[in-house]
Amino acid sequence: MRTVGVAAAAALMIIANSAMAQEVVDPAAAPGAAPASPPPPQDDGPFTAEKVTASARAQYGFSLQGGTINPYALGLGARGGYTLDFALYLGGSLDWYSGTSNSVLGNTISGDHWQVLADVGYDLALTPDMVLRPLGNIGVARKSMGYCFEETGVCGEKASNAVVLGLGAEYLYSFGMFNIGADLRFNGLAANTTKSTFINLGVVAGATF
C-alpha cells in the first residue's frame, strides 16, 4: 500500500508540473500562432501642421540692376501664417530695407524700400524637426529715392509704388516650441513702365504654437 501511495503522489506531481509549464508558454511562440501585429505607422507630417508659425528675420537684399545705390541692402522682416492639416501654408510678411547711399562732389543719393506680401506655400517634412517651405508671394512695395545737392541746397525724395511677385523657400528647424532657419527669395517689382528685381537672403527665428 505504501508503494502504491508513493507512486500516486509522484504521478500527481508530474501532472501538476506539466500543467504549469503549459501556462507559461508564450502563445505567440506556439506552432501555428498568428504573428504579432506591427506597431501603427508614425505620422510623417510637418511639425507645423495645424499650427501658427510666427517669425522675425534679419536680411540682406541684392539688387540685380546694379547702379550707384542699392535700395535694399540690410533689412528686417516678419512673417506669420497657419499651416493646414494637409501642409498648405497661408500667411503674410512685411519687409523693410535700409538701402545704401552714395555721395559725389557733395551730391548725395540714397534709397530705401518696404513691402507687404501675401504668402502661399507648402510645408515639406524633411525630418520630424525640419521643414522646407517653398513659397510664392504677391503684394505691394514702396521704393523711395532721396537726393540732396550741396551747391544748390535742394533736397527731396521721390517715391514709387510697385506690384511685387516673388518665389522662394524657407527652412525651419524646430527645438520644442521655437525654431530657427533661413530664408531665400527672388522678387520682381513692376511700377508703371519700370521693372526691377532683387534677391533676398535672411536668417529666421520664431515660434510655432
Characterization of this structure:
- There is one protein chain.
- By secondary structure, this protein is mainly β.
- The protein has one domain (51-208): Porin, CATH 2.40.160.
- Helices cover 11% and strands 62% of the residues.
- It is built from 1 helix and 10 strands.
- The chain has an 8-stranded antiparallel beta barrel.
- A hairpin with a 4-residue loop joins strand 7 and strand 8.
- The chain is elongated, with a radius of gyration of 34 Å.
- The chain starts with a helix and ends with a strand.
Task: Indicate the CATH topology.
Answer: Porin
What is the element string, with H for helices and E for strands?
HEEEEEEEEEE
Specify the helix fraction band: 10-25%
| Count of individual helical segments | 1
Q: What are the segments in which pLDDT stays under 50 over at least 5 consecutive residues? A: 4-8, 23-27
The CATH class is Mainly Beta
Q: Structural class, from helix and strand content?
A: mainly beta
What is the number of independent domains?
1
Which quaternary structure do these chains form?
Answer: single chain
Beta-strand residue percentage? over 45%
Task: Give the SSE map.
Elements: H1 2-24, E1 51-63, E2 73-83, E3 88-97, E4 101-104, E5 107-122, E6 124-127, E7 130-149, E8 154-175, E9 178-191, E10 194-208
Antiparallel strand pairs: 1-2, 1-10, 2-3, 3-5, 4-5, 5-7, 6-7, 7-8, 8-9, 9-10
